[in-house]
Amino acid sequence: MGYIIGATDAAGLARKFEVKHRAKNKPAVTLVGSLEQLARLAELSPEVLGFYEECWDKDILMGCILPWRKDAQQYLPRGSEAYVRDARRTSCFAVKYGLPVEQIAGRLWEEDSRLLYADPQKALSRGRPFHTFAPL
Q: How far apart are CA 123 and CA 35, in angstroms?
C-alpha cells in the first residue's frame, strides 16, 4: 500500500516528488479546506463555483484544474512553483478529500495562509494513509 504525501513548502514538495518519482510536469494537488479559500486562490466561473458548491454540499471528492488568481500567487511557498503549477500556470484544486486532512488544510490556511499539497485525486480517493514531510 502506498502513502499520500503532503507538503507545505518547497523542500517538502521536492522530497515528495523524489520519493514518488513524479515528473514536475504533473504538479501536486492543492488541497482546499473551504470554498472561501478556493475563491481566494483560483479563477472561478459561476458554473465551476456552482459545481464545487454542489460537490461540497454532497461531500463528494472533486478537483478541477484551474488557473491561479493573479493576486493569489503570494500564497505560493517560495521556490514551489515548479511543483504546484504546470506550464499553463494552473493547478488541480481539490475539495472533500477526507475530514482529517481537510481540517489540517483549513487550519493551515486560517492561521497562516499556508497551503497543503498532496498526490493526485486518484490516490486521495483510495483512503491511503497520509504522511507529511513538512512540519504542520
A: 22
Q: How far is CA 36 from the centre of its chain?
A: 14
Q: How far is CA 26 from the centre of its chain?
A: 13
List Cβ neighbours of 63 (8 Å cut-off, separation of 6 or more).
29, 92, 93, 94, 95, 121
For 59-78, how does the pLDDT look when each residue is reduced to its tens digit (9 = 90+)? Answer: 999 999 999 999 999 999 99
Domain total of the chain: 1
Q: Which domain holds residue 43?
A: 4-132
Residue with cell 472533500: 96
Selection from 27, 103, 121 nearest residue 68 by Cα: 27
Model's pTM, two decimal places? 0.84
Q: What is the CATH number of the domain that holds 39?
A: 3.90.870.10
